[in-house]
Amino acid sequence: MTTLVLNEAELFVELDRLIRAALLTRRKLLACSLRGSTQAIGFIARSSASALAVAAHELADLVRRLGGRPSVEPARQDALEPLSPASGQEQDLLQACELAIAEVACEYRDALEWNLPESAQEVLMRQFSVLIANFEHVKALRMRLQQAGPDATDTRHPTPARPGA
Questions:
Q1: Is 15 within a domain?
Q2: Whole-angstrom Cα distance, residue 66 to residue 25?
Q3: Could you count the other beta carbons within 10 Å of the beta carbon of residue 8?
Q4: In whole angstroms, what is the distance from residue 86 CA to residue 88 CA?
Q5: Which sign, positive or negative, has the C-alpha torsion 66, 52, 14, 139?
Q6: Distance between CA 73 and CA 140 in Å, rounded?
Q7: Which CATH number is 109's domain given?
Q8: Do the domain assignments include residue 82?
Q9: Chain-centre distance of CA 102, in angstroms?
Q10: What is the DSSP letter of 38?
Q11: First CA to last CA across the chain, in angstroms?
């Protein structure tokens, strides 16, 4: 693993990029939750979106603790409308959720290669594990629905991970 050494300004830019990625993914997941016809999809997408909102707020707080000022305030972004997913089919929605979480997880994976203060590394590691757990929950639900076929009506759902859990 290669460690990237960032100066303070680069660190703040990269943390801002993570905040933006988390907020954008949150909007994508909320859109999926609105379009899903089962309780399980709505629940898992909303829970994952909520975890990303918490992550964005934590990242903004981290930037402030390190002496910076986030260019994006997560509280202002919370009111933005969800993005529209391309399709309302359950498999397509779950695939969109899975892809959105995977994209932001890749951003976190890359960020973990930075030379960060230990407290910042801990925050990113914890948030990364939450993202991976939520990705696994979405993937498991998609696989379960795929195996059950198009007439699946099971609305039971696993509980996605939340930051700090």
A1: yes
A2: 25
A3: 10
A4: 7
A5: positive
A6: 33
A7: 1.20.1260.10
A8: yes
A9: 8
A10: S
A11: 27
